[in-house]
Design goal:
- The structure is a single chain.
- The chain has one domain: tt1808, chain A.
- It is 30% helix and 34% strand.
- By secondary structure, the protein is of the alpha+beta class.
- The longest helix is centred in the N-terminal third of the chain and has 20 residues.
- Strands 3-6-8-9-10-11 form a 6-stranded mixed sheet.
- Strand 1 and strand 2 form a beta hairpin.
Length: 188
């Protein structure tokens, strides 16, 4: 070992930066992963889960285009935390999304999370709280485990001020402006 190497000083790297670097490298290698409160969550959705996501996405498609928005499941960063989410659906303005590999979560107009058996608690509690803290105006939780949906609005420091639901599948979701549409949930 050279004298130069033995005396090299390493700069401290904070945990948030290290974790987010690692999750981005995983995603680049084809592994779908996210960070929820500093813990890696590998994403492997079932076909039933994907079918539910597609039905909700279809209900949003026309209005998202009219609003000049992109709907997808891209990388959302929660700066200052050990969180890096891959939501089932996020609606973001096209001009912000163009060329972006990730976006700060507060750029989303709507985030939709669809629960799975393996991560239902994270979607119901941790992610809902963080989306509200970061000012996401609307958060739709589609709970496949319970067969319900809940719409959260009015973001506040510990989540959301308003909660509509839970409503059983089959009850339409009335999204307020800027969406101003209803999403049919009968097929969920």
């Amino acid at each position: 070992m050279s004298a130069q190497h033995r005396h090299r000083e390493y700069l401290p790297v904070d945990r948030e930066t290290s974790l987010k670097f690692a999750v981005q490298r995983l995603n680049e290698s084809g592994v779908r992963a996210q960070l929820v409160e500093g813990e890696f969550e590998i994403m492997a959705p079932t076909w039933d889960h994907e079918n539910t996501v597609d039905l909700v996405r279809d209900g949003l498609a026309r209005r998202a285009r009219e609003l000049k928005c992109v709907k997808g499941s891209g990388n959302l960063d929660l700066p200052g935390t050990e969180n890096w989410y891959l939501p089932d659906i996020a609606i973001v303005p096209q001009e912000i999304a163009k060329g972006a590999t990730s976006l700060p979560v507060d750029e989303a107009l709507l985030v939709v999370e669809v629960t799975s058996e393996s991560n239902a608690a994270d979607d119901r509690v941790k992610k809902r709280r963080r989306y509200g803290q970061f000012g996401v105006p609307l958060h739709l939780l589609v709970d496949r485990v319970d067969g319900t949906w809940t719409l959260f609005s009015g973001p506040v420091h510990d989540g959301y001020a308003t909660e509509e639901g839970p409503h059983p599948f089959g009850t339409p979701v009335a999204l307020p402006e800027p969406f101003g549409i209803e999403i049919d949930t009968a097929g969920l």
